[in-house]
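ok so for the tutorial part 2 we go from a plain amino acid sequence to predicted structure tokens. step 1 is just haveing the sequence, like this:
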Amino acid sequence: MQKPGQNIDFALKETSPKIGAGALTGDKLSCTYDLVEQMHYLYVQVVKAKELPGKDVTGSCDPFVEVKLGNYKGMTKHFEKKSNPEWKQVFAFSKERIQASILEVVVKDKDFVVDDFIGRIMFDLNEIPKRVPPDSPLAPQWYRLEDRHGRKVKGELMLAVWMGTQADEAFCDAWHSDAATVGPEGVANIRSKVYLSPKLWYVRVNVIEAQDLIPYDKTKFPEVYVKAMIGNQTLRTRISQTKTLNPMWNEDLMFVVAEPFEEPLILAVEDRVAPNKDETLGRCAVPLQHVQRRLDHRPLNSRWFNLEKHIMVDGEKKEIKFASRIHLRIFLEGGYHVLDESTHYSSDLRPTAKQLWKPSIGLLEVGIISAHGLMPMKAKDGKGTTDAYCVAKYGQKWIRTRTIVDSFAPKWNEQYTWEVFDTCTVITFGAFDNGHVPGGSGKDMRIGKVRIRLSTLEADRIYTHSYPLLVFHPSGIKKTGEIQLAVRFTCLSVINMLHMYSQPLLPKMHYIHPLSVLQLDSLRHQAMNIVSARLNRAEPPLRKEIVEYMLDVDSHMWSMRRSKANFFRIMNVLSGLIAVGKWFEQICNWRNPITTVLIHVLFIILVLYPELILPTVFLYLFLIGVWNFRWRPRHPPHMDTRLSHADAVHPDELDEEFDTFPTSRSPEIVRMRYDRLRSIGGRVQTVVGDLATQGERFSSLLSWRDPRATTLFVFFCLVAAIVLYVTPFQVVALLCGIYVLRHPRFRYRLPSVPLNLFRRLPARSDSLL
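step 2 — the prediction. this is what the tokens look like for a chain of 769 residues:
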């Protein structure tokens, strides 16, 4: 799993966790939660109390419940002046941390100085029943309170106490003993949750024309354009070429919106009366709830909308309606997939409209087991600490594990399932430090990220690996720990899965009515902002910094390191062709006479029997594929520091990568980087110019720009046509092949005659200024 030249600390490691899959435990958990290790908990459900005695001078009671087990203590919220309170709260104590044999549930009365004791209930842990889902939940029971001497007192408490695992329904919403330092108000920020991205739509606004506009300045022809707004998205058409009161545009504007639709579409017709001054000639608002929805490329009906404008009367804004109107075609595009993440790491490729979805082809099951070796992300009470949780994103479904407080080796052991509609998709995992627990900074810090492409996974195989968590800092690449995952892809239909490889990657509307690259980039940015804003409004929120990191919002920003990595990726792809070229050069130079003779024989056979050429090529590719099957990758891909050029990056390049946009660096540094870019751009410019020169030389063969060269080429073409007409093609091919493969004794170091002629042809480079 360690790649050549890669640091062993950054390598993928195969693990053998004690998960339920394949284990003959006889436990129902192994059927439902089989990709994680079992974690046993003592659950205490505090439901309500009744007939609690008053402890205050006024005879009232401010009750709360304290659940104590050894050194761990959990508390419910307290109610003021209520003798029959309802809490409906669950407490979970990790069995591996239990050091006591007695569970004590105490009811107390909240007081300013010392809380008053009302009563308690004691449980022997050896007598507590065990429950395993899918058994029905344990029914709570009424227990009579006792004083400190075991005598029954007034008041009863409804409880349920049982031993269970993380598969229990109460696990997600329970207060956990490993988060004892988090108060009741902070518990919501550390619980595990499942989130759904909002359903995104493209809105196409086809601005056709306007009629009967009334400009403010009637002495000149209006320069009119239309400005369209949805929320913070603003687009405008070009200024109409028809300088009349009935301008025409016939221009499309594209927006991204999310259900439920909260903002209307607002269109304003504006007249440019001066270089920096525009006057609104009228506006209209269109609620998106009433807009038509389109599933294919067929046009929908257009509509006329009345324009309105406001005037000031006695200091008040007064709305007047008049005869101006605008002709629009507005619809929600259901046939596109709204790209809200980087194209290379897409986790969902389905169209927006559910009617166009195809059946799922499989299930993706993930066990987020644990992490270890985490670095301290913040300081608390003078020592480093980490409050880690994990986020996973696939399709519209986001999951967030619970936060393990103050641990460098957290164990989550949570399992999640996603439907798979296309294997050419990527699931992304991110580990974060919770900054919203006591002592936190208020911002969740990134620990690292892992991506797994589903098409690289074998069906029905469980992958258990420890992935390095790597993060770029201004000082360089850092390993912040490792995360242990168990992943299984289950195929529901092999035929449907294989059929997917013959289908377009994106929905057909992307090919029938494609969007421009600039449009896609702008729309992707808007979609990311919408998803981030919506998830930030959930409870608990999936905060903006988390969503942006998972969606790779800054992946389009310039980076010298990424540019180098991409250049060497291209060179690695071309290395195969370069290797074939070098091998052929060795054949032509007779470095290995036996091999060259065999190539001659093979070439003669293929010339004499040309019908064998294609079968030979495909048979050769088949044999290569079968041969490489023995060395096929057995592990999912992971972040490669060598491929990313992260292990030997210059500090200034790193500083540039972490610079803000627009830049916040000093003018001297910006000037130096600008000069460096000019130097790189000059080299690119030279290469592009050389490519243009070669193309122009080809075109000048028949353009008579150089009459002597064109004369030679034209007469050569005539002679070649006559010779090839009277000579069988096989003879020509045989002679050409033998000439190319001739012995070095018959070769010359000087360039060939055709190459000499080509290099003498004129190009347009001498016409450049």
